[in-house]
Write a structure and sequence with these properties.
Layout lengths: L1 E2 L2 E2 L6 E5 L8 H14 L3 E6 L2 H4 L21 H8 L6 H11 L2 E6 L2 H8 L6 E3 L7 H8 L5 E4 L5 H13 L5 E6 L14 H9 L2 E6 L5 H8 L4 E5 L17 H18 L8 H6 L5 E4 L14 E4 L10 H4 L21
Parallel strand pairs: 3-4, 3-10, 4-5, 6-7, 7-8, 8-9, 9-10
Antiparallel strand pairs: 1-2, 11-12
Length: 345
């Protein structure tokens, strides 16, 4: 499975910098953030495509006030999205900036009109947000565009995940990535449940990844070690910009550190192998082997006193010790000689 030029089945983890609301209502800051994401080592920049009106109603009733222990408690949904959205008229320039930087660019559409709008940019993928996973018709419409579809599972039940995977396949779209995600902002470490990652991949036969809302960079590293092929992390040029997502976003230095740690983890993982590399072969000189521990006369019996398993490793393998003990020397042997089978009478 590929997204743009990147093969998600390779060792290279697909790292997505999430712009979200981290632009401070400035197109220039948004463009500078894209350029910084490239320098920090991201493979892609991801936008969010919605308006306050496509997300919710302009309503002050209790249901529309956030009261659930979040960063945004006591705010009105409509007003929050009005503050956080990325203007649609910016998208063309943002896609162009990403292309100039050699960065993939795609978005999370939050309704069908956003999908239709984004199609003009021929994005390499689409993202379904955690809170939209229950909107089956939106998932179906996105899947019908036959682009790789990345789905966050933050608030989904197992049944709902099964449903949306089936919907994608019904639309002939088998390029599915499921992201383990904790939809808390910031997310507690104990809620990450990263062991779900290999299960997602095995259970659904898809690429698994991690959309991270924890603080710091530990969780993405652990996720990659557990098989995540996609990492998504909120990215901000400078936390002083502020905004709805600033507190749990990584700045340039932290994101750069995360990318480097992920790449190091990829190298550490390597591949399943029992072949010895050059350094291991050289290292065997410090392993144990059989040596003459004190002078032995021809015909003398080999014992645990005159034959020992010691370092270095140039002599006969220690596994032959039991075979040699009790036999007689074929010639005179001096202390420190390597034991060989030819020494046996």
């Amino acid at each position: 499975m590929k997204i743009g030029h990147l093969d998600l089945t390779s060792m290279h983890t697909f790292i997505i910098a999430e712009l979200s609301a981290n632009h401070g209502h400035s197109l220039e800051i948004a463009k500078q953030t894209i350029k910084a994401a490239k320098k920090a080592g991201a493979d892609a920049i991801k936008l969010q495509t919605y308006t306050a009106d496509t997300m919710t109603l302009n309503c002050q009733k209790k249901d529309f006030m956030i009261q659930s222990g979040t960063l945004w408690d006591n705010q009105n949904l409509y007003e929050l999205y009005l503050e956080a959205y990325t203007p649609w008229e910016w998208h063309k320039e943002l896609f162009e900036t990403a292309k100039e930087e050699g960065l993939l660019c795609f978005s999370t559409p939050f309704d069908k009109s956003a999908v239709d709008f984004l199609e003009q940019f021929d994005p390499p993928a689409y993202k379904v947000a955690s809170f939209e996973i229950t909107d089956y018709e939106l998932v179906r419409y996105i899947a019908s565009k036959k682009k790789p579809i990345i789905i966050s599972t933050g608030i989904a039940t197992l049944e709902e995940i099964e449903d949306v995977v089936a919907i994608c396949k019904q639309e002939g779209n088998h390029d599915i990535v499921l992201l383990q995600c904790t939809s808390s902002y910031p997310a507690p470490l104990e809620g990450a449940n990263l062991l779900t990652l290999p299960d997602l991949s095995k259970r659904f036969g898809v690429i698994a990844g991690f959309s991270d809302h924890t603080l710091g960079i530990t969780a993405p590293i652990a996720a990659v070690a557990l098989g995540a092929k996609v990492i998504e992390k909120h990215f901000i040029l400078d936390k002083t910009i502020g905004g709805a997502d600033a507190s749990f976003s990584l700045d340039v230095d932290a994101f750069t550190e995360m990318v480097q740690a992920v790449r190091d983890t990829e190298r550490l993982l390597g591949k399943p192998t029992y072949n010895l590399d050059e350094s291991a072969i050289k290292g065997r000189q410090f392993s144990r082997s059989l040596y003459v521990a004190k002078a032995i006369q021809k015909g003398e019996v080999f014992t645990e006193e005159n034959i020992r398993s010691i370092r270095p490793g140039y002599g006969l393998h220690p596994k032959y010790l039991g075979e040699i003990l009790g036999k007689r020397a074929s010639k005179n042997l001096s202390k420190g000689e390597r034991v060989t089978k030819e020494m046996l009478d």
